[in-house]
Structures are given as structure tokens and as C-alpha cells.
Amino acid sequence: MIRLQSLTYAYRKGAPVIDGLTVDLPSDRRLAILGAQQSGKTTLVQLLAGLITPGSGSIERLARLSFPAGYQRGFRMASTLGQNITFAAKIYGADADEVIGFVADVTGLGAMVDRPLRDLSVQDRMNTSFALTYALPFDTYLFDNTFTVGEPDFRAKCLAMFEARSRTSGMIVATKFARTASQFCDCALVLIKGHATYYDDVAQGVAAYEQSLPVAQPKPAAEAPTGA
Questions:
Q1: DSSP 32
Q2: SS3 for 106-174, per residue?
Q3: Do 115 and 133 form a contact (C-beta atoms < 8 A)?
Q4: 41 — alpha (psi -120 to 50), left (phi > 0) or beta?
Q5: Do the beta carbons of residue 55 and residue 10 sit within 8 Å?
Q6: Pairing mode, if any, of strands 170-175 and 30-35?
């Protein structure tokens, strides 16, 4: 369980992105955080992960939450790939050799373990960060807009890891896509203008979210060309 009490967050002096949110979120289910662009999805994921501090209110985490999948700010570019993975494994109480082996196997970067992280391509670093997320043991995994990255073969691996982890852990997926929520989640938190409503049935959450979206305006019909 994750308990949010009067949670508020605003950037500088703007209107709150999260405004007085009080709700209990399950930590053992597939929860979609549904919201349109700039609705506060990323902010809420960062608050849950402890990457930013709320302006007011509190978060009680009765489960071990991951960092957002793909998070790279903790990486040290001058350290080797293996050193970076070992550092993360020690922080989260995992066996470093097992985690290194897992990441190397999934990414195919075993030959790069002793090379500085800066020698890896941007895509290889992203693949590494996602593989590392899945390699570490958490009660609940956090995803900001995506849980797969890279080329089709690696995306398939990410999907397989997502499904494998979800059998024993909870998943929280922030997305603006109703189809993603419907396909991969079973409950939803719908964010609208800083406020949120929890739905125990994802179908009800998706319906409420879709009703909140602006109706697309039909394109004006092209005028018939006038001739002389």
C-alpha cells in the first residue's frame, strides 16, 4: 500500500501540478496513472520514487518502490558499466554478480562491463538502465510513460521482463494512452487538473479519462475550387 495524504506539488510559483491528493494506492497490482500531457503524471511518479519532495502533505510507502525505469541520473559516466551496476545492486541489497550477469545477458553488453559508461552509445545506456531496473528486486516497479525501449528485439525482452516481474510485484505505469492502461493494467488513477480519482476497475478509469479529453474538432471541408 502507498498512502498519499494531502499531497501537493507546484513548480516555482505556478498552480499546483498535484493539488491536495489523498488516496491509498495498491502496491501489489497493475496500476495505471492516466493523464493527458502535462497533467502531472511524471511529477507523481517522481514523488512516489522520492526523487522530488512534496510542497506539502506526505507519502507513506508500505512497500519498496523502484526508481522510474530508465532513470540514469545516478550513473557515473567515468565509472565502468560493471561498477555502476555494482553500486546500484549494493544500494538495493541485491547480489552484484547476479545483477551484472542479468544485465549483460539481456543487453548483450557483456564485453563492455569493464569499459567506462561513457563509451556506451546513448541507446545502450538506455537499454542498460531498463535492464537494471528489472534486475533489482522491488515490491513495486515505477514506469514513466513506457516500460519498453530500443529496437524490437529489446522491446520484446522488456515486455517479457515486465510480465515476469508483475507475477510477484506491483506495477505503476504512467501513461496518456488509454489502450496501454486497458491492455496492461487492472486499476487506474486518473489525473485531471491537479486532482485525481482512483478506480479499482481499470475499465471505469479509462472511461472517465476518455470523457475528460477534449473532443477532436472535425477538419473543415475543403472548398471546391472556383473556375472561370
A1: E
A2: HHCCHHHCCCEHHHCCHHHHHHHHHHHHHHCCCCEEEEECCCCCCCHHHHHHHHHHHHHHHCCCEEEEE
A3: no
A4: alpha
A5: yes
A6: parallel
Mean pLDDT of 119-130: 94
For the segment 208-220, what is each residue's pLDDT rounded down to a tens digit? 999 988 765 444 4
Cα separation, 219 vs 204, in Å, equals 30
CA–CA separation, 80 and 88 (whole Å): 13
Question: What pLDDT digit, counting tens, does each position of 130-153 carry?
Answer: 999 999 999 999 999 888 888 999
CA distance 160 to 175: 19
- Record the cell numbers describing residue 136, joined without a space: 533489482
Three-class secondary structure of residue 200 per DSSP: coil
Comparing CA positions, the residue from 53, 69, 57 lying closest to residue 196 is 57
The answer to whether 10 and 16 are in contact (CB under 8 A) is yes
Q: What is the pLDDT of residue 215?
A: 65
Side chain identity, residue 169: S
Give CA–CA dist 135/82, Å, rounded: 14
